[in-house]
Amino acid sequence: MSSRGLALAPPAKNVVVYRNGDPFFPGRKVVVNQRRFLTFEAFLNEVTKSIHAPLAVRNLYTPRHGHHVAELGDLQDGCHYVAAGFEKFKKLNYLNHGRKELRGTRNSEDLQVSTSGWLFSPIFHSCRNTGSSHALGCFYCSVFRNGDLLSPPFPLPLSKSTPLQWDALLATLTEKANLRSGAVNKLCRLDGTQVSGGEELVNGDYYVAVGNEEYKKLPYFELLVPQDSACRTLWYVD
């Protein structure tokens, strides 16, 4: 019986998992072994640790169309998936990591706005190549959604050397934040004070995108950013 049981045991599968809404995360390889993971929930717990997710992973989606994966048996060897908490699937070009910023349009301030709603500048490519957010005057901010304690902050890469058009930034934040209240009308610091221009943005700081409603003072940082001190500055940069 034991030899027959070993023969019938499903083989291990290798999958690659991305973080939902993170255009910079290159993906993590995870081995799906049903002897190790008796339930789908156990596998999701392992994915949470493997990709250093800010919140527990509770859903898995296909990367192109966002089809929900509900069981271990649905996972296919060699395939790619997107891990999410309870937030909805964020459609990005996960499979072409590092090239999605090339497909954009350039505005009068020489900033590229990609189809996924991220802001880039020509200098940003050099920042990514050198692996340093300080190279050539590039920096990053993280943005929470006002009143939302389920969605992790999304990254905002910017260039210090390129003038930033504030209206263009708010438009991009509107597309990316997808607030229930509608358009993003202001950006606030975690203490609720409003940011009035791009020159006030600080590298590595966290902000909150706010619509027409009032700023909601909540423990965004404490609940949505990993406790690991090494990950508390921009968890999405690998």
UniProtKB/TrEMBL annotation:
It comes from the Eukaryota. It holds the Pfam family DCX. GO terms for cellular component: microtubule; microtubule organizing center. PROSITE patterns: DC (PS50309). Residues 13-95, 143-221 form the Doublecortin domain. Keywords: Repeat. One of its GO terms (biological process) is intracellular signal transduction. This is Doublecortin domain-containing protein 2B. The gene is DCDC2B.
